[in-house]
Design a protein that fits this description.
This protein has an eight-stranded mixed sheet. The protein has 291 residues and is α/β, with parallel strands linked by helices. The C terminus is likely disordered. The chain starts with 5 loop residues before the first helix and ends in a 15-residue tail after the last strand. It has a domain of 188 residues: Rossmann fold (3-Layer(aba) Sandwich), CATH 3.40.50. It is globular. The chain is 34% helix and 19% strand.
C-alpha cells in the first residue's frame, strides 16, 4: 500500500484544489441525497461539498490511513470519512460520485467506471479528473532515471506510464455507450511555483512517492539529488517563480432518468476556455495526453 504524506501533498494546496472546483462546477445536481468523494485525501475539499449540498449525506473515502486521519477533523453532521478501496467501491444509490486525481492510480479503472455508471441512482452524476501529463518532462525524466543502469534493478515496474489514463475521447465513448450524457474536456494549467526546486517538491507529494517508498533512505536521497538536477534544467527558475505546465482530463457524466434521452451534451454546457474531446483548433495537432 502506497504511503501518503498529507503535509507534503498540501504544500501546493491552492494549485491542486483548482481542478477540483473546475470539475465540480460542472455538476448540476440540485438536491442530491448521497454524495461520495472517492479519493478524498485530507478532506478539505470534501467539506466544501457538504457546504454546497447541506441536506445531502456526504462521504469522503480514501485508501490512505494518513489522509483519513487528517480528514477526520472535518467530520460532523452529515459529513463523514472512512477508509475504502476504490476497486471495491459500490456506487449503488449514489446521486453524485466524484473522483479527483485518483483513477490514474487504479489499473483498469475503465471497468470500474462502467460498473459505477450502472449502479448510480437515476439522474445521478459521475465526475472525475485525472492528470494527463505522463509525457511531460517531470514524468519522463523520472522514468528515464529509474530505467538507468544505476536504478533499473531497484525500480523495475515501480512507475506508471502513459497508459495509466485514457484519452478524453475514450472516456466519452465509454460512458456514452453506457447510456450517460457526457461532457469531456482538457485544461492545461500553467502553475507558477515559488521556492527552490518546486517541481521536485510537487512530485515528492505525488508521482515520486512510489520511488521513495521502494528505496532505502540513502538511496532515495541519491535518486532525488539526480532527479532534482534534471528538473532544474527542464523547468528553469525565473525571477517570478518556476512555470510548471500541467495538463488534466475532466469528465462529467449525467445518468438520465427514464424520461430523459441520452445524447451529446449541449454545446452551452461546455466549460468556458476549455477544449472538448475530439475538437482541436484548425492546424493544431491533438495534445498528447498524469498527478
Amino acid at each position: 500500500m502506497l504511503r501518503w504524506d498529507p503535509a507534503q501533498y498540501a504544500r501546493f494546496s491552492d494549485q491542486r484544489s483548482r481542478p477540483f472546483f473546475d470539475l465540480t462546477g460542472q455538476i448540476e445536481a440540485s438536491r442530491p441525497g448521497l454524495v461520495v468523494d472517492l479519493g478524498c485525501g485530507s478532506g478539505e475539499l470534501t467539506a466544501t461539498l457538504a457546504s454546497r449540498w447541506p441536506d445531502a449525506e456526504v462521504r469522503g473515502l480514501d485508501s490512505s490511513a494518513e489522509m483519513i486521519e487528517r480528514a477526520a477533523g472535518f467530520a460532523g453532521g452529515r459529513l463523514s470519512f472512512a477508509l475504502a478501496d476504490a476497486a471495491e467501491f459500490q456506487a449503488t444509490g449514489v446521486d453524485v460520485l466524484i473522483s479527483n486525481a485518483l483513477l490514474q492510480w487504479v489499473p483498469g479503472h475503465q471497468a470500474l467506471l462502467l460498473r459505477w455508471a450502472e449502479q448510480l441512482a437515476d439522474g445521478g452524476w459521475l465526475a472525475f479528473q485525472v492528470p494527463a501529463n505522463f509525457g511531460s518532462p517531470s514524468h519522463r525524466l523520472m522514468r528515464d532515471l529509474a530505467a538507468s543502469p544505476r536504478w533499473r534493478d531497484r525500480l523495475a515496474g515501480v512507475l506508471r506510464h502513459a497508459d495509466a489514463v485514457g484519452e478524453p475521447a475514450e472516456y466519452l465513448e465509454l460512458l456514452t455507450e453506457a447510456g450517460l450524457v457526457v461532457n469531456a474536456w482538457q485544461t492545461s494549467y500553467l502553475h507558477v511555483l515559488p521556492g527552490p526546486d518546486p517541481v521536485l517538491e510537487w512530485v515528492r507529494g505525488t508521482g515520486l512517492r512510489p520511488v521513495l517508498q521502494a528505496l532505502s533512505d540513502d538511496e532515495a536521497a541519491e535518486f532525488t539529488d539526480e532527479y532534482a538536477a534534471l528538473l532544474r534544467q527542464a523547468y528553469p527558475a525565473r525571477a517570478f517563480g518556476t512555470v510548471f505546465p500541467f495538463l488534466r482530463t475532466f469528465v462529467v457524466a449525467h445518468k438520465p432518468t427514464g424520461r430523459e434521452p441520452a445524447g451529446p451534451e449541449p454545446a452551452s454546457r461546455e466549460p468556458a476556455g476549455q477544449k472538448p474531446a475530439g475538437q482541436e483548433p484548425a492546424g493544431q495537432e491533438p495534445v498528447e495526453v498524469r498527478r
